[in-house]
Amino acid sequence: MAQIKLSNLKHSYLPSPQGPEDYALKEIDVTWRDGGAYALLGPSGCGKSTLLNIISGLLTPSEGQILFDGRDVTALPPDQRNIAQVFQFPVIYDTMTVGENLAFPLKNRGVDAATINQRVDEIAKMLDVTDMLDTRASGLSPDNKQKISMGRGLVRDDVNAVMFDEPLTVIDPHLKWKLRSKLKELHQQVKATMIYVTHDQTEALTFADEVVVMQEGEVVQIGTPVDLFERPQHTFVGHFIGSPGMNVLPCEAKGDRAIFEGHEVHLEGPVQGTGGNTNLGIRPEYVGFGETGIPAHVTKVSDIGRHYVVSAIVGDTALKVVSEHSAPEPGSQVFLQFKPEQSRVYRDGWIATEERGT
Amino acid sequence: MRTENQRAWFFVLPVLALVAFNALVPMMTVVNYSVQETFGNNQFFWEGLGWFEQILRSDRFQAALGRQFLFTALILMIEVPLGIIVALSMPRKGIWVPVCLVLMALPMLIPWNVVGSMWNIFTLPKIGLLGYFLNDVLGINYDMTQQPISAWITVIVMDVWHWTSLVVLLCYAGLVSIPDAYYQAAKIDGASNWSVFRYIQLPKMKTVLTIAILLRFMDSFNIYTEPFVLTGGGPGNSTTLLSIDLVKIALGQFDLGPAAAMSLIYFAITLLVSWVFYTLMTKDDAE
């Protein structure tokens, strides 16, 4: 178990990268505390798998260092880093039994037979696979195979970190949440640092204590699920997390107000800086209907069970509103009210308002 | 109740007719010859199973069969491990992949009698490059037209040269289908190179390897053209494999009855060994 620190990490798949666009990872500086559960969240191609492979040692970064408890492991091969990795598609050794699969990493490290048996039994119990120990691993269902490949990582008691690379991709939907809660449970039992890579916000937000959101090789925000939802640092985070995502509306900034389609909107605090491309960011959950406010035209109402998603147009700009109990008729005129403490201005994508009272 | 439409059978008829014409009819002719005796003039006499008994008891047949099994066993023992080693050492990606694949495929594209002629000219003492080199440069006494050992080595080397590629290409196809994650997981699990081969590569190659061994068994067991062109079955009878002997009996001596009986025995052995082998290799998967 260890604290993991990534310092000035950069990686390019090209031999001699020229500009920032040649880098798959642009400049990563993160510290993960020992025993935490972290998620790397981002769209496909954002560099999250690259980052994972660098931590596990399957890739060597072009620049920067990886430190486990302060020890530089950048040059060490995977088997000397004491990490475990679970891949997108379950990796199992077909010709071995479930028990032999679990024992394999220990056998390779020359652990004595008695200890191996004891550890394998322990892990099998933890994963609820004790009754399968003697069956051939090739015939198992995908979720059990994925459990076994997880078990091969957990069986070693010296693991610094367990990494998951979109581990639920091939699992049936109804088994996904089961395996996810198993993961959570395991994390509480083994207390290893766990890093979970996914493009699914539900998976990331339910698994992790802290989520690292990535876009185009950059970390855009690190925070708890609540942070990411309540105060996105970047329009990308606002849009990527939440369903529907945050409304990003073109506006002009003016003191602690934003001018949106000619209407004045109160913000959470004063706007910093000048110039650039400014947008008003507000989540659909924090837009309400009222007697007064910004006039809008309702274009569509979707009933998605728990609440309504109302699509509306203000001037030329479309936005979405989430309404809990009732929704206006499509085609009607309404007045929208933006919650001031949840209205923010973003300059060139990054947050530009200051939180009041801090 | 639904009546099944049986008209689909009509579509099978042409194939059935074709197969009957080019396989079943000639086969039945052979069966017909194998139980009769002829002295010419198109007169035939019933012989029963006499020819089968005579063939099975004859020293000549037993010797040829022994040589045949020895030949097949030797080339399998060389070509299968060699093919696996070559496939393992071929690059998996990059510009050298097509180069390697084309080089590997080349020997298999050469007509069989050309392969025989090539190796004949190549290995003849005095004239052939290899023959000259071995005898006059290295001083090794090598003459495949005179010495049975030299002849055997030449026939084996020729077959290895001609057909190892088949094993290589099939194994290579099995190897490239293994996802990277398997190698990465093995690295993390601390597996040695041998373990990677034993627990990842070999199991993934098993299906294609079964096909490769089966094909190489059948082809080598029925081999005719190359050794015939190279040595003509000699010196003496030393490289007279089953098919060469069969042709000698059928077309050289024109003993149609014994030749027919021998072909049926030959066919039965090939079929039996292939079946036993296939059953053994696939037994594991059925469990």
Index terms:
heterodimer; A: 358 residues; alpha+beta; Rossmann fold; OB fold (Dihydrolipoamide Acetyltransferase, E2P); six-stranded mixed β-sheet; elongated; B: 287 residues; mainly alpha; MetI-like fold; two-stranded antiparallel sheet; 2 strands; 75% helix
Strand content of chain A: 25-35%
Gyration radius over CA of chain B: 24 Å
Categorize the overall geometry of chain A: elongated
From the N-terminal CA to the C-terminal CA of chain A, the straight-line distance is 36 Å
Most strands sheet of chain A = 6 strands, mixed
For the largest sheet of chain A, list the strands in their spatial order.
Answer: 6-7-8-3-9-10
Distance between the termini of chain B: 39 Å
Low-confidence stretches of chain A: none
Strand content of chain B: under 5%
| Inertia-based shape of chain B | globular
Q: How many beta-strand segments of chain A?
A: 22
CATH topology of the largest domain in chain A: Rossmann fold
CATH fold description of chain B: MetI-like fold
Helix percentage of chain A: 10-25%
Return the structural class of chain A.
alpha+beta
Q: What average pLDDT do the residues of chain A reach?
A: 86
In words, what does this structure look like?
Chain A is elongated and about 75 Å long. Chain A folds into two domains: 4-230, 3-Layer(aba) Sandwich (Rossmann fold), CATH 3.40.50.300; 249-351, OB fold (Dihydrolipoamide Acetyltransferase, E2P), CATH 2.40.50.140. The model of chain A has no long low-confidence stretch (mean pLDDT 86). Chain A has eight helices and 22 strands. In chain A, α2 crosses α3 (113-127) and α2 (98-108) packs parallel to α4 (142-154). By secondary structure, chain A is α+β, with helices and mostly antiparallel strands. Chain B is mainly α. Chain B has a single domain, classed as MetI-like fold, CATH 1.10.3720. Helices cover 75% and strands 2% of the residues of chain B. Chain B has helices at residues 9-34, 50-57, 59-89, 96-109, 112-123, 129-137, 148-176, 180-188, 193-221, 225-231, 242-252, 256-286; strands at residues 36-38, 44-46. In chain B, strands 1-2 form a two-stranded antiparallel sheet. The longest helix of chain B is centred in the N-terminal third of the chain and has 31 residues, at 59-89. The mean pLDDT of chain B is 87. The A-B interface holds A 53, 56, 58, 77-79, 83-85, 87-89, 91, 93-96, 104-105, 108-109, 136, 149, 152-153 and B 179, 181-182, 184-185, 187-192, 195, 199-200, 203-204, 287.
